[in-house]
From TrEMBL:
It comes from Caenorhabditis nigoni. Residues 343-352 have a biased composition (Acidic residues). PROSITE patterns: DAGK. It is an enzyme of class 2 (transferase). This is diacylglycerol kinase (ATP). Belongs to the eukaryotic diacylglycerol kinase family. Pfam families: DAGK_acc, DAGK_cat. The keyword Ribonucleoprotein does not apply. Its main location: membrane.
Length: 352
C-alpha cells in the first residue's frame, strides 16, 4: 500500500510540474473576453459584460482592449481520484484484482483546471440536467433567455419532485487546509474563485471582510466555500435576492465521497464516482485584461489628459498595453453590456 501511494503522488506531482514548466516556458499574453456564453461570470468580473449582443462595433471593442488593465487570475487544479473498487471476477481472485488496481492508479485519476468555480450537489445536479437536455436538442437552445428559463424549469422540478441531493451534508466529508469542517444542513456546496456565479449572482454575499473571513478577490490565493440549503435557496441566490451559507475560506479543498455525485467545474457537469476531490492552487496565475472604467473616457478631464504630453516622455499618454491612447475616440461609447460602473476597483472585483 505504501508503494502504491508513493507512485500515485509522484505521478500527480510529475504531471502537475510538467504542465507548470511548459506554461512558464511559453509567453502567455493577457487575455480579454468576449462574453458569448450564457453565464459569462468571468467576463462580468472583468467588466466585459453579461453577454455579447452582436450590435457592438468591433472597433469599439478593440479600443477597449487597448485601454484595458492587466490583472491576475488564480487558477486551480481539481484532481478527481476514484476510490479503489476491488471486485473478483470469474477470471481472477480478489487479490489479483487488487494488484491490478494498485498498478494503475492513473486509471482512477483525472485533473481539470478551474478558473471560476466548482460545485457538488444541487447546483451541479441542475446544471447536469440542463446539459443533458441541450445535448439531446441543441437546436432549441439558441438564446440566453431560453436557456435561463430551462434552468428555472429544472429547478422547480427538483424542488417538488426530485430531492436527490438531500442530506448531502451527512454523506460527504469536507477538509479545508487540512482541517475537517463540520457541515450545516445543506444540499450543495459551491467553491468560488470569483464573486460571480450563475450569471452574475454572488453566493458569498458582501465582499467586505467579516469575522474570520478576509475580503475575497480572484487573485488572493484563496477559495470561498459556500453551502446551499435547498433548491429554493438556490433560486433566491440566482435571483440575487439572497446569499448562501458561508462555510470556510482556504487555499486547498478536499472532499471525500462514498457514492456517486453530480459535480461541475466552470459550468461543465458530470457524474463523479465515489472517491476524493482535491482542489489545489496552480503554480501560475493567468494574465487577464480587465476593461477600464467608463470614467476614464468620455469626460472633459479625460479629453484634457489625452491631449497633454506625458511629463517624462513628452509623448501622448499610452494605454496599459503600450498603445497611444489617442488612437481611441474618448466618446466612442460602450461595447458589451456592462453593469459594473462602480466607484472602486475593489467593488468592481466583487461585481455586485
Amino acid at each position: 500500500m505504501l508503494s502504491f501511494r508513493r507512485k500515485f503522488f509522484v505521478r500527480i506531482f510529475f504531471n502537475f510540474f510538467t504542465e507548470c514548466y511548459y506554461d512558464a516556458a511559453c509567453f502567455s499574453p493577457p487575455c480579454g473576453i468576449v462574453p458569448l456564453g450564457t453565464g459569462n461570470d468571468l467576463a462580468r468580473v472583468l467588466r466585459w459584460g453579461g453577454g455579447y449582443t452582436g450590435e457592438e462595433n468591433p472597433m469599439d471593442i478593440l479600443k477597449d482592449v487597448i485601454e484595458a488593465d492587466t490583472v491576475k487570475l488564480d487558477r486551480w487544479a481539481v484532481v478527481f481520484h476514484e476510490e479503489e473498487r476491488n471486485q473478483p471476477t470469474s477470471s481472477g481472485t480478489q487479490t489479483e484484482m487488487s494488484e491490478q488496481t494498485m498498478n494503475n492508479p492513473e486509471d482512477q485519476t483525472s485533473m481539470i483546471i478551474m478558473n471560476n468555480y466548482f460545485g457538488i450537489g444541487i447546483d451541479a445536479d441542475v446544471c447536469l440536467k440542463f446539459h443533458n437536455k441541450r445535448d439531446a436538442n441543441p437546436e432549441k437552445f439558441q438564446s440566453r433567455l431560453f436557456n435561463k428559463t430551462q434552468y428555472a424549469k429544472i429547478g422547480l422540478q427538483k424542488m417538488f419532485f426530485e430531492r436527490t441531493c438531500k442530506d448531502l451534508w451527512k454523506r460527504i466529508e469536507l477538509e479545508v487546509d487540512g482541517r475537517t469542517i463540520e457541515l450545516p444542513n445543506i444540499e450543495g456546496i459551491v467553491v468560488l474563485n470569483l464573486l460571480s456565479w450563475g450569471s452574475g449572482a454572488n453566493p458569498w454575499g458582501t465582499s467586505k471582510e467579516e469575522g474570520n473571513f478576509s475580503k475575497p478577490t480572484h487573485y488572493d490565493g484563496l477559495l470561498e466555500v459556500v453551502g446551499i440549503s435547498d433548491v429554493s435557496r438556490l433560486g433566491l441566490i440566482q435571483s440575487k435576492l439572497a446569499a448562501g451559507i458561508r462555510i470556510a475560506q482556504g487555499g486547498s479543498i478536499r472532499i471525500t465521497t462514498h457514492e456517486e455525485w453530480p459535480v461541475q467545474v466552470d459550468g461543465e457537469p458530470h457524474i463523479q464516482p465515489p472517491g476524493t476531490i482535491t482542489i489545489l492552487k496552480s503554480a501560475l496565475k493567468a494574465q487577464m485584461l480587465k476593461k477600464a472604467k467608463k470614467s476614464r473616457r468620455g469626460g472633459t478631464a479625460t479629453t484634457i489628459c489625452l491631449t497633454q504630453p506625458h511629463p517624462e516622455t513628452s509623448d501622448p499618454l499610452s494605454g496599459p498595453l503600450g498603445v497611444p491612447s489617442t488612437l481611441g475616440d474618448p466618446h466612442h461609447g460602450k461595447t458589451t453590456p456592462d453593469n459594473t460602473a462602480v466607484d472602486s476597483d475593489e467593488e468592481g472585483d466583487a461585481f455586485l
